[in-house]
Amino acid sequence: MKSLEELAAIRERMQNKVVLREGSGDIRVVVGMATCGIAAGARPVLNAFVEEVNREGLSDKVTVTQTGCIGICQFEPVVEVFEAGKEKVTYVKMTPEKAKEVVEKHLKGGKVITDYVIKDI
Amino acid sequence: MVRAQVLICGGTGCTSSGSAKLIAEFENQIAKNDLSEEVKIVQTGCFGLCALGPVVIVYPDGTFYSQVKEADVKEIVEEHLLKGRVVSRLVYDEAAADAAVENGNVSLSDTTFYAKQKRVALRNCGVINPESIDEYIAMDGYAALGKALTEMTPEEVIKVVSDSGLRGRGGGGFPTGKKWSFTAANKADQKYVVCNADEGDPGAFMDRSVLEGDPHCIVEAMTICGYATGATQGYVYVRAEYPIAVKRLEKAIKDAREYGLLGKDIFGSGFDFDLHIRLGAGAFVCGEETALMTSIEGNRGEPRPRPPYPAVKGLFGKPTTENNVETFANIPQIILKGAEFFNSMGTEGSKGTKVFALGGKINNTGLVEIPMGTTLREVIYDIGGGCPNGKKFKAAQAGGPSGGCLPAELLDEPIDYDNLRSKGAMMGSGGLIVMDEDTCMVDIAKFFLKFTVDESCGKCTPCRVGTRRLLELLEKITSGNGTMEDLDRMEKLCYYIKENSLCGLGQTAPNPVLSTYQRFKDEYIAHVVDKKCPAHVCKNLVRFEIDPALCKGCTKCARNCPVNAISGAVKEPHVIDQTKCIKCGTCIDNCAFHAISKK
Question: Interface pTM (ipTM) of the complex?
Answer without folding.
Answer: 0.78
